[in-house]
């Protein structure tokens, strides 16, 4: 294993302590350095491959954590909360709380944005996972934060009411509102998901959902659409700004 | 633990043998039964919660399997292959190969579609994962299939060429073609991802990608858009058909 420059090594040791990262005794410092290196400084050894893995690890860790702690929540609700938890916005916030930014190596002219912080955090999650090939250390590190963020998501009226949140989102970007198409299903015997709803914006269906009432089906559709539409509209804004 | 009716128990034992499912000696038959039960027959004990977990487990297993077997592939390529591997279409195909359909319990009037097969397979993956909380048994069961499917994906010219695949998809549903908007990036020093591309259809951006050439950036954008657009268009077709 290649040794890191002593200054970088000390830097990483400092962050491990600060962030309470539960790495093994024989920490793979080269891999941790890679997780905190952007491709702008090293096209070969950067966080991209680790991020691909860490993204999947984090999704599984969040799913386990939510299902264990909210055994009575519906799949639709857990899925909606999960999508918020593993969104770039939430992960960037978590990375800030863990003071990750000063330890992320990027090209000097590059501005570090929320996506970079989220990606690097996912890469660090992959480093932890690879040490044991189990989710134990990842969950020991992040469960408390995930549960705190979940409580915030569930208490935030705008996020609990996805129809309102979606409407605010589309209004911020255009004058049109999302449209719901909801049908009552009769075909399946004993199916408690009586209503099926899709949500439309700009002639495109962005999400669908089911529920025992019309309102719940529409909320589920709005929840399914929210993150996808937010990412697209944000992308459009930043594209048209450049 | 509630016992299953003897006929169902024998049925499940038969499928475990047929599909070579590497369950533990003390198989949780009730949970396996749940993984193979649609909500139309049991609103409380069905595959939905297991599917939420299994979806995340399978995504992680596929990521690990791909990264281990294709250490030199780019993140973009691995990510594109992964999205095909864990798509409903591929999982339904795999479920067919494992002869899952006859063991899936659904309401008598219900037609079993590819989505149901994919969902139930994900739920079975969760059952395996929960036995050991590791990916070992899941990967022992599915790695060979994932690698075989990966080889097929990489050899299929239509899938290797995502721009062609995307064009075929949109032409099947409407007379318009997807539009690419590609820009050359100059801002970041030493960034090998020189071109950034977005793909548009019906005034909506469906995917974005980067690459060292214009062509590779557009291929990456098409790959990112493919599954999302396919799901939406399929959904529209089935909605308008009913």
Automatic annotation (TrEMBL), chains A, B:
Database matches in SUPFAM superfamilies: dsRNA-binding domain-like, RNase III domain-like
Binding-site list for Mg(2+): 51, 119, 122
Pfam families: dsrm, Ribonuclease_3
Nucleotide-binding among keywords: no
Domain of life: Bacteria
UniProt-listed PROSITE patterns: DS_RBD, RNASE_3_2
Gene Ontology MF terms in the entry: ribonuclease III activity
EC number(s) on file: 3.1.26.3
Cofactor (UniProt): Mg(2+)
Annotated RNase III domain residues: 12-133
Keywords on record: Cytoplasm, Endonuclease, Hydrolase, Magnesium, Metal-binding, mRNA processing, Nuclease, RNA-binding, rRNA processing, rRNA-binding, tRNA processing
Protein name per its UniProtKB record: Ribonuclease 3
Lineage of the organism: Bacteria, Bacillati, Cyanobacteriota, Cyanophyceae, Leptolyngbyales
